[in-house]
Design a protein that fits this description.
Strand content of chain C: under 5%
Shape of chain C: rod-shaped
Distance between the termini of chain A: 32 Å
Largest interface: A-B, 29 and 33 residues
Structural class of chain C: mainly alpha
Radius of gyration of chain A: 20 Å
Number of strands of chain A: 0
Order of helices and strands of chain A: HHHHHH
Helix content of chain A: over 70%
Number of strands of chain C: 0
Shape of chain A: globular
Strand content of chain A: under 5%
Number of helices of chain C: 1
Order of helices and strands of chain C: H
Largest sheet of chain A: none
Distance between the termini of chain C: 71 Å
Chains: A mainly alpha (about 230), B mainly alpha (about 220), C mainly alpha (about 50), D alpha/beta (about 240)
Oligomer: heterotetramer
Largest sheet of chain C: none
């Protein structure tokens, strides 16, 4: 238990340090892009957030398979935590995309394949969370969530293909018109690393919180029994 | 072979019951035609406008009428505990799934074909062409495979009718996109070759999602 | 410029809010587990 | 679990440490019983004791959280389909489709159970429960008692060796109850193995030759008819039903 605690603290410290470094990179280190100016720096949030949205659902998928196979509630706690975080980060991705679209194209929303795919992924996250919420009991919710986790995951690449086919005329690589300078790439890498560590840290904490919630319920059951 | 014959027995039973009451096909069909009529008032009589909006309207209608009919498929199993009776039969859970997919596919196709006829009559657009029918069958198969899985799932939740569209629509979105775009091409008089990317997309969806749904269905109805 | 700052602020706020949520939940759960464990221990004493 | 008979008779149904958990609630706790071929076992227990859950697990409708169930020696985890072939279920729900006729319902189930000579067999079972004149009527138009008769016909359609009855008598009049037992117990001279649940103690003692009491998910009484002590059974039953009411 003690080792776990110090491990958690270490995780938090690493995440925070990396995050500071990433912020330094984004605010000061990276060069300002010529055509789009400062607002292009949203890019350094935007890309990591997209990555976390996908990573989140990949973990949901993995946890779902493990749950249906092993039937350990730990796996369910893992995948539902990943879904919660993935949902939050996908929401942030949509917001940052919107805040970028405004200065870049003059509109709050554009139906680029990437944004559209993210939007649908966001809806699938909602579907996952809804099913758990409306299940008649907890284990059923876990089972149903796992089913949605698996089906949704295999659907994501098909969604990505369909949106890009649908909007094939759209300039997919608009961001990288001038290409990325080495500094930009480096800044992006740091930012991705920082966000990923943060995500993993949150995931570990959230999963353990859910385990503790189950412990509370178990104890409560013990107390209420035979009274 | 017993697998297929038992699946057919399930589909057969569904069909007999539906033919007797006609409650689902009838209600959904009325809904579908109403949507088409309302569309008539919003799009006006300009043939160009209608032609441009028709594919989108058609598939929006089919998606919603699909969810409507899918919502019904497990209702019959809930009365008198039939699902338990079904589960006590010496047949795997997948048999139930395949049987239900077949009957859902049949019901949806019947509704869609009639809707296409109505569409042709009311708007003077010839939508009953062979490529459009192929698109309809393939896309509806995608609807039925995913929809049967999710209707089994939502039938066991606390808010049945509400949960299904939230699950179903985002997942089948690739099929809707492909079907709309494909139908546009057909109405624009494009050849079969121009349709191939959309066919491929729907086929990919059908192949992947039907296998996955088949595999996870037992987890939806077990306890 | 302001779009960039808004984005940063929102992301920061959400991350920070999540941390607060986690800390609060953690504290509550710890207390609850403690008190429940005591109750269980008492009960076991009584039944013996 | 040891009982008097010197000859080791075949076991029809056996559970080994079966537990079922719903969320945090343990509905069955390590239930181990074995029921011999031809036995009529009565499962007593107050409401909420886990009777229905146990029966549903035996019928392979529900999976146990842990433990094994053997049906005529077959583990239901491995041979679920073969096990189901040997089992017939009658519950307070009829498992019949309201929109289909008696014949269509039975035909459907006959197909699902691979019943040979469907037509003849359906005619036979419907005759047994006395529903032949209504063969082409929809289930939805029949009275509750008649529906239950068809449910009985449905359960024995595939000539199961084992019958599981979940409160089959509730809401039925005496005439149908006599049909029920006449039909269920014997067909072609073969005595079936029966497990049935009830909370009616007197009725259970009258019918059964093996008695089990389930309380809070655990078997707390198990005795054969020869060794049974009626007062002890009554006391046990009253104690557990008194507590949980």
């Amino acid at each position: 238990m003690k080792g776990k605690e110090s491990f958690k603290t270490a995780g938090l410290v690493v995440a925070l340090l990396l995050f500071m470094w990433a912020l330094y990179m984004i605010f000061i280190f990276v060069p300002t892009e010529a055509t789009m100016g400062i607002s292009q720096r949203i890019f350094y949030f935007h890309v990591p957030l997209a990555w976390l949205g996908l990573l989140g659902y990949t973990l949901v998928f993995f946890g779902s398979i493990m749950y249906l196979w092993k039937r350990r509630s730990g796996w369910d706690n893992f995948s539902s935590s990943a879904a919660e975080l993935g949902f939050i980060f996908t929401t942030l991705f949509l917001i940052s995309g919107s805040l970028w679209a405004k200065p870049a194209w003059g509109v709050w929303w554009t139906w680029t394949p990437r944004l559209t795919t993210a939007l649908i992924l966001w809806f699938i996250y909602i579907a996952y969370l809804t099913v758990r919420f409306y299940a008649s009991e907890k284990q059923q919710g876990a089972r149903f969530g796992a089913v949605v986790g698996i089906v949704g995951f295999v659907d994501v690449p098909i969604i990505a293909i369909s949106t890009s086919l649908w909007r094939s005329e759209h300039p997919g690589a608009l961001v990288f018109q001038g290409g990325l300078t080495p500094e930009m790439t480096f800044g992006l890498m740091v930012s991705i690393a920082a966000f990923t560590v943060l995500f993993v840290y949150f995931l570990a904490i959230r999963t353990s919180l859910k385990q503790q919630e189950m412990e509370v319920e178990r104890l409560r059951e013990l107390v209420e029994q035979d009274q | 072979m017993s697998f297929l014959s038992k699946s057919l027995a399930v589909a057969r039973k569904e069909t007999i019951a539906e033919l007797r009451t006609r409650e689902m096909v009838f209600a959904v069909l009325v809904f579908t035609i109403l949507v088409i009529v309302i569309f008539n008032f919003t799009a006006g009589v300009d043939q160009e406008v209608i032609r441009a909006a028709a594919p989108g309207l058609l598939w929006a209608t089919f998606s919603f009428s699909g969810t409507l009919s899918l919502n019904r498929t497990f209702v019959r199993e809930k009365e008198n505990g039939c699902l338990e009776g079904l589960m006590s039969c010496p047949a795997s859970r997948e048999v139930i799934y395949v049987g239900k997919v077949l009957s859902n596919l049949l019901f949806m196709l019947v509704i869609e074909i009639i809707a296409l006829l109505v569409f042709t009559l009311l708007f003077n657009i010839y939508v009953l062409s062979p490529p459009l029918l192929v698109i309809t069958v393939l896309a509806t198969f995608g609807f039925a495979t995913v929809g049967t899985l999710f209707s089994g799932l939502s039938a066991n939740t606390k808010a049945r009718e509400m949960v299904l569209p939230i699950l179903f629509l985002p997942i089948v979105l690739p099929v809707i996109i492909a079907a709309v775009r494909g139908s546009e091409q057909v109405l624009a008089g494009k050849s079969w070759a121009g349709l191939s990317p959309w066919f491929q997309l729907i086929l990919a969806f059908d192949a992947v999602l039907s296998v996955v749904s088949f595999l996870v269905f037992p987890y939806v109805i077990e306890e | 410029m302001e779009y960039f700052l808004t984005a940063t602020a929102i992301i920061w706020a959400v991350v920070f809010g999540y941390v607060l949520f986690i800390i609060g939940r953690q504290r509550k759960l710890r207390q609850e587990i403690e008190s429940l464990k005591q109750l269980v221990a008492e009960k076991q004493k009584n039944t013996r | 679990m040891g009982n008097g008979s010197a000859i080791a008779t075949e076991t029809a149904l056996e559970t080994r440490l079966v537990s079922k958990r719903f969320g945090n609630r343990l509905v069955l706790r390590d239930v181990s019983v074995s029921i011999r071929k031809g036995e009529l076992a009565v499962l007593f227990g107050p409401n909420g004791a886990g009777k229905t859950t146990l029966l549903r697990i035996l019928a392979t409708i529900m999976n146990p959280t842990s433990g094994n169930v053997l049906v005529t020696g077959m583990n239901i985890k491995e041979d679920a389909e073969d096990a189901r072939r040997k089992i017939g279920v009658v519950s307070h729900q009829t498992f019949l489709y309201n929109d289909l006729t008696i014949r269509e319902n039975l035909e459907f189930y006959a197909r699902m159970f691979d019943v040979p000579h469907r037509r003849e067999r359906i005619g036979e079972v419907v005759e047994m429960v006395g529903m032949t004149p209504r063969l082409n009527d929809r289930i939805g138009t029949l009275s509750r008692g008649m529906q239950q008769r068809v449910a009985i016909a449905r359960a024995i359609l595939h000539k199961p060796e084992i019958l599981l009855l979940d409160e089959p008598e509730t809401g039925l009049d005496l005439k149908i109850i006599s049909v029920l037992w006449k039909t269920l117990l014997g067909e072609g001279g073969e005595k079936r193995t029966v497990v049935f649940t009830t909370h009616d103690l007197e009725r259970g003692i009258e019918l059964g030759d093996r008695f089990l009491v389930l309380s809070r998910g655990a078997i707390i009484y198990d005795s054969s008819k020869e060794q049974m002590d009626v007062t002890h059974l009554r006391e046990t039953y009253d104690r557990c039903s008194g507590v949980s009411v």
